[in-house]
Amino acid sequence: MSGPEAPAFGALKPKRLDRLILRMTCALPDTWLGLRLAILLRRAVTMRLAKPDGALDVERFGMRMRLHPRDNGCEKNLLFTPRMYEPVELAALGAEIARANAAGRPFVFVDIGANVGLFSLFVAAQARPDARIFAVEPEPGNLQRLRFNAAANPAAPIKIVPAALSDEAGELAVELDRRDRGGSRTKKLAPSQDGAVRVEALTLLGLLTAEALGAVDALKIDVEGAEDTILAPFFRDAPPKLWPALIIVEDSRASWKVDLMSLLAANGYSVSVRSKQNLVLRRAIDPLAARQSASIEEAARIGAARPAVATP
Known about the structure:
Elements: H1 16-26, H2 32-46, E1 56-60, E2 63-67, H3 73-80, H4 87-103, E3 108-112, H5 118-126, E4 132-136, H6 140-151, E5 158-161, E6 164-165, E7 170-175, E8 185-187, E9 197-202, H7 204-210, E10 218-221, H8 227-237, E11 246-250, H9 260-266, E12 269-274, E13 278-283, H10 287-305
Helix pairs in contact: 1-2, 4-5
């Protein structure tokens, strides 16, 4: 429904029953009971949509979107229950955007594992027109939907990066999750994977360097357990000026091979807030400046503690 031959936005408007149910589910509170009711009600819509990827054209965040609730949990959640879609993460991101807007500067956002572009579209709706938004997505089906959603909002300053990020440039294989496209992941190519879906791989530092970015306001990363593979080499090699002020990361510590939380803490980040699935970290200090300040304070303390030396 979102490929090259897809009908224009508006062709898949919700019908009368769909609109009624959407009004009901969108009004439900972000509570356990509200979610249970939404799950019951939304089935009346999803079961009527064409298989495998039936879609509806709606507006969310004030942006046009074609959302496919049958095979993507993120799209389903935003379609039926926008109040319940990542409220903690979007509130933190919105506050960061407001700071940049108040300062009169363009907001820079990197969306790693952009899926169909929901976070990128949220930023585009909130930020100034001169924002720079990079939506990084390798999975072909999600990429088609992302391109459709971006094209439906031609004023949105979203640059789509059709690639995966990893610890080195090259190629990766995409492991598709057809039940929930948001769960697709990338992995290293094995010699026997002749039929694998191959995608270009970049490093995060390589991407930011190629785009000539001087700073990053916020970064969201959700890559199904490979977050450490991307972020650890970035913080090893990137200059501190490129370290994002805000990071939203899926909490996949059970899958990480690197102690990413300790690495982030060592570089000045602390957990600002957490949700069921994600961590929001803010870089409260410049680690280099903090270390230099600590060294100066320590030297002053030691100097003050030393006895005075008499002048001959």
